[in-house]
Amino acid sequence: MYNYLVSRLATSVVVLFGVSLVTYGLVFLTPGDPARTILTQQLERQPSQNEVDAFRAEQGFDEPIPIQYLGWLSDALRGDLGTSYYTDTAVTTLVLEALPATLELAAASMVVALALAIPTGVLSAVNRGTTVDYASQIGALIGVSMPNFWLGYLLIMVFALVLGVLPVAGAGSFAQLVLPAITLGTGMAAVVTRLVRTSMLEVLEEPYVDTARSKGLRERIVVYKHALRNALVPVVTIVGLQFGSLLNGAVVVEIVFQRPGLGMLLVDAVFDRNYPVVQGIALFTGVVFVATNLLVDVTYRYLDPRVALGGETA
Question: Where do the ABC transmembrane type-1 domain residues begin and end (predicted)?
Fold first, then answer.
């Protein structure tokens, strides 16, 4: 266990280094002069060349990009992600302020996805080849194919504008969380449904399931107590990976429903060329994604002792 964790942590460090390097490099490949663009928005007028030169020197833009990157990386390792160009607020503070709303949305979406996917996948597998199975597969296909933003606007039109039972936008109440959670969770539910169905079909063919049935156990107990537990082992991996994807998907959903969070903060920072905020959010998201993967691997090992650490079968 110890050697495995050390190996994974070392790999994670390399991955995060790559994330920081790519993020920092791509930001500076955007066209135009970032110093002039930022000053224009700050001053609400065209800055003079002296003002641009002074700002460039103050922010270190006159240094070579590798030197700028090493300085930013050194600060990031100490927990300093820089400050916003426009509010002079620490990026760490901005991220921590926006994080709860995004985590709330991601967690609610996860609940929606699992509540839809697990029962539907089980019913589809148990009723293989029937109308229930075909309907489940068609629904999953539609869910995978449907863009989040399109579903979000459709839900707003039906439940907010036509029926008037749920609010259109905002955050802070359960009602304002319902539509965004359904929008973000539907795509994940479709993926997990197909995986649960496939996994259940494999488990239901195992000898121990036939043994349980031969003992006279009710089918409900055989399916939900004996088969489902083992069928969920591969699902854990996908769920963990999908949680990281939910954070990315939250960007679109937060824009559609005008929810404050990391998504809105990132979009605003991109349009404003607020580089420290963009880089800070990208690095933070990378840390969350890598940490989630590590947690999934360890959990996978404990759910099924036959699986060796690292994903190899013992």
Answer: 99-300
Contacts of 298 (CB under 8 A, 6+ apart): 5, 309
* Calpha distance 162→171 (Å, rounded): 21
Q: What is the pLDDT of residue 313?
A: 45
Of 219, 195, 183, 233, nearest in space to 117 by CA: 195
Cα–Cα distance between 225 and 228 in angstroms, integer? 6
**Distance separating alpha carbons of residues 144 and 24, to the nearest angstrom:** 32
Q: How far apart are CA 46 and CA 93, in angstroms?
A: 30
Q: List CB contacts of 32: < 8 A, sequence separation 6 or more.
A: none
Phi, psi of 313 (to 5 degrees): -80, 130
| Contacts for 225 with CB less than 8 Å, ≥ 6 apart | none
Judged by DSSP in three states, 163 sits in coil
For 52-59, the CB contacts below 8 A with 24+ separation are 59/35, 59/85
pLDDT digits 0-9 by tens, 50-59: 888 888 888 7
Residue 277: partners with Cβ closer than 8 Å, 6 or more residues away? 84, 91, 94, 265, 266, 269
Sign of the torsion formed by the C-alpha atoms of 221, 118, 167 and 141: negative
Total number of residues shown for the chain: 314
- For the CA atoms of the chain, what is the radius of gyration? 24
pLDDT digits (tens, 9 = 90+) for 155-181: 999 998 888 888 888 777 888 889 999
CA distances (Å), origin 115, targets 182, 197, 206, 212: 11, 14, 26, 26
| Count of C-beta atoms within a 10 Å radius of residue 15 | 15
Instruction: Please give the model's pTM, rounded to 2 decimal places.
Output: 0.79
- Cα 66 from Cα 80, distance rounded (Å): 18
Percentage, residues of the chain above pLDDT 90: 9
Q: What mean pLDDT is reported for the chain?
A: 82
